[in-house]
Write a structure and sequence with these properties.
With 129 residues, the protein is mainly alpha-helical. Helices cover 52% and strands 10% of the residues. The protein has helices spanning 11-21, 30-37, 61-77, 79-87, 93-114; strands at 41-46, 49-55. It is globular, with a radius of gyration of 15 Å.
Length: 129
């Protein structure tokens, strides 16, 4: 299974992602998917006021929790995710994990759309020869 090649995503989480999100190819880009899952920032707009208010509350909470838990596992297993986590260290740990979860979400979408398994320690998805 392609999703299990991504560090942090095991059998149960991969099954949950496929069952809940069905066809990931329907999302045009990671912004649309992040908005659906709830890993996109919420925005408050009124007149000239424009504020970012953290995570949006309109979300698929089960899938969001899958990706947050997978992010905790990914920073233990994947050196690229560890480096990304350490780069942001010093800030609020929970907000860093949300950033890691969004990065994991983008890797998941890339793996599904390209059909190429993720190589741990790689920053890009590469074709196998």
């Amino acid at each position: 299974m392609l999703l299990r090649s991504i560090s942090g995503i095991g059998g149960m989480v991969a099954c949950g992602i496929i069952c809940e999100l069905e066809n990931l190819r329907r999302f045009n880009n990671v912004k649309h998917l992040a908005g659906y899952v709830g890993l996109a920032p919420g925005v408050y707009q009124s007149g000239r006021t424009h504020k970012t208010i953290g995570m949006t509350m309109r979300a698929h909470r089960l899938i969001r929790s899958y990706f947050v838990e997978a992010a905790w596992q990914a920073i233990r297993a994947d050196p690229v995710m560890q480096a990304y986590y350490r780069k942001h260290l010093g800030k609020n740990v929970k907000s860093i994990i949300i950033k890691v979860a969004r990065k994991l979400l983008s890797k998941t979408l890339a793996v599904i759309k390209t059909g190429i398994p993720y190589k741990i320690g790689s920053n890009r998805i590469e074709k196998q020869q």
